[in-house]
Amino acid sequence: MSEFNPQDVVVVFVLGGPGAGKGTHCARLVRDFDFVHLSAGDLLRAEQNRPGSQYGQMIAEYIKDGKIVPMEVTIALLRNAIEQSLKDRADSTATGWGNGKGRFLIDGFPRKMDQAVKFEEDVVPAQFVLFLECTEELMLERLLRRGEHSGRADDNIESIKKRFRTFVETSMPVVDEFRTKNKVVSVDSMADIDTVYDNIRKEFVQKLQ
Ligand code: C5P
Ligand code: MG
């Protein structure tokens, strides 16, 4: 049995290629729906930089090569972050919170089938998946622009090409699997930010009611 009941701990997986807009739209969803935003990539980067981490070097290498970090590490980071938020907000009166309840956007996870299966079995099954659709051409443009100031080791053309490849070969099968279960809400993420977000918001209003 999973650690949490999906009625209490609502999880939405936010997926899409690198540069599809996951982080941008999660920030707006946090503002409008009281979610806690957990970015798997951000959690991995924080662990990489944590003094004394036994995984730092490994994470750095995986990220630079655009490869998927072994799921044990990422799932442990997510599980800890969920437990911490539930503790911190145990007395919250916000919608969806309090008394062990909470709502989470898990951004950039699961990126590989084994992570999806293990997380849903052990931690909590997701309520649905938000999938942001975008062409590689536009994602490349966005990532190169972001790379001018992001300081990220993987926002360069060599790493980006590897990340696109991992996305197509390893991460898209996860989305396809959730599609067969009718759990995917797809939104076109190529228009301007406000237009895309407006469509996302409407979907969330429906799904969370
Ligand atoms: O989502 P983001 O672009 O921040 O992820 C950066 C990198 O972190 C990925 O390219 C991958 O190397 C690693 N990652 C991972 N498993 C995840 C999410 C991210 O290995 N579920
Ligand atoms: Mg991100």
UniProtKB/TrEMBL annotation:
Residues involved in a ribonucleoside 5'-phosphate binding: R45, K67, I68, V69, G108, F109, P110, R111, Q115, R152, R163
Gene3D superfamilies, sorted: P-loop containing nucleotide triphosphate hydrolases (3.40.50.300)
Swiss-Prot/TrEMBL catalytic activity: UMP + ATP = UDP + ADP
Protein family according to the UniProt entry: Belongs to the adenylate kinase family. UMP-CMP kinase subfamily.
A Gene Ontology term for the protein's cellular component: nucleus
Localisation: Cytoplasm; Nucleus
Known cofactor(s): Mg(2+)
Subunit structure, interactors included: Monomer.
Function: Catalyzes the phosphorylation of pyrimidine nucleoside monophosphates at the expense of ATP. Plays an important role in de novo pyrimidine nucleotide biosynthesis. Has preference for UMP and dUMP as phosphate acceptors, but can also use CMP, dCMP and AMP.
A GO molecular-function annotation: nucleobase-containing compound kinase activity
Pfam families recorded: ADK
Region feature (NMPbind): 39-69
Enzyme Commission code: 2.7.4.14
The protein's name in its UniProt record: Uridylate kinase
Alphabetical keyword list: ATP-binding, Cytoplasm, Kinase, Nucleotide-binding, Nucleus, Pyrimidine biosynthesis, Transferase
Domain notes: Consists of three domains, a large central CORE domain and two small peripheral domains, NMPbind and LID, which undergo movements during catalysis. The LID domain closes over the site of phosphoryl transfer upon ATP binding. Assembling and dissambling the active center during each catalytic cycle provides an effective means to prevent ATP hydrolysis.
Keyword Nucleotide-binding: yes
Region (LID): 145-155
GO BP term (any one): nucleoside monophosphate metabolic process
Cofactor note (record): Binds 1 Mg(2+) ion per monomer.
